[in-house]
Amino acid sequence: MKASTTLSVTVSDLPSGWSGAEAGAVKYGFQWWSYFYGKGATQVAWGGLGFGGQRLIVLPEKDLIVVFTGWNILPDRPTLAPPVAIERILQAVTTEQLSHREEDAGRG
Q: pTM (2 decimals)?
């Protein structure tokens, strides 16, 4: 069981747009990508990529699942690299959480 769920390949040649990923910060195995993020790349997000920009990203530490249902099959069109998507998601979630905390503090 352990062997069937262990990521087997470290990705060193990252596509364009993935420049924010550190060497070894992306791994692949058994149809799932893992993206290490956070300070020191200590947290991991799991992702599945589909045709035309379809993707699923799971951030277990944040108890969050994000689904992208894009449809971009034309050449030379912009794409949203998973590390960039993760960064934007975390910024939005963190901003929202801080906003709620400030509101709650004002009520107390």
A: 0.65
